[in-house]
Amino acid sequence: MYPVRLVFECADKYPAGRSSAPVGSIPAVTGSEPLSTPETTPPLASNEPAAIKFSLNELLLELADAYFGLDQHDLKEDARAALRADASLVKTIVAQSPDTMVLIEGHCDERGSAEYNLALGAMRAEAAKEFLIEGGIPNGILKTITYGKERPQCTTQTEECWQKNRRAHLTPEQ
Predict the structure, then answer these.
(1) pLDDT > 90? residue 36
(2) Strand ranges in 34-166 using DSSP code E only, listed in sequence order
(3) Would you say the C-alpha torsion 47, 99, 65, 137 has a positive or negative sign?
(4) How far is CA 43 from CA 7, 35, 40, in A?
């Protein structure tokens, strides 16, 4: 028999538009055992740091990539919109976890030399960083790195795939 635990948390721990905690996985019951929860199941201990960490991880998953044109490092309007949304999320993350550092990765598609793409990726990461700073994110929590064409998101040789690789990606620094 598998005990079932329900966890209820305050709605204010989740981003706007989210009114409940995400659903966790529950193991499937096999055989003819009835589902029941023993009355002796102890209540879950309140673990505020774990709840905040879960909420932070959920926020980090909502960060959007800023995409660039071929051989470009200037921010198009769709990239600016993604970074504006990211700035709002980063502010929330930093408010909950002041020690958080954000790494901005610059990526390129596979065309061009490794050296060219490393330089272009660095310029894309810097462009995103400057935009975030203008949006109120403290410079001290932002770092940049370039991967050039070394970490593609997509490997098919099509324009649609190459577009997915021309990006600035935000992630917590490890």
Answers:
(1) no
(2) 66-67, 102-107, 142-148
(3) positive
(4) 9, 18, 9
Do 103 and 143 meet the contact criterion of CB atoms below 8 Å apart? yes
Residues in Cβ contact with 94 at an 8 Å cutoff, skipping those fewer than 6 apart: 100, 137, 138, 141
Q: What are the tens digits of pLDDT across the range 39-61?
A: 443 444 444 454 455 566 777 78
Distance (Å, rounded) from C-alpha 53 to C-alpha 40? 29
Strands (E), 16-166: 66-67, 102-107, 142-148
DSSP string, 5-42: ------GGGS-TT--SPPPPP-PPP-TTPPP---TTPP
Cα–Cα nearest to 73, from 27, 39, 106 = 106
Distance separating alpha carbons of residues 117 and 123, to the nearest angstrom: 10
Q: What is the pTM of this model?
A: 0.68
Q: Give the span between the Cα atoms of 125 and 147, in whole angstroms.
A: 10
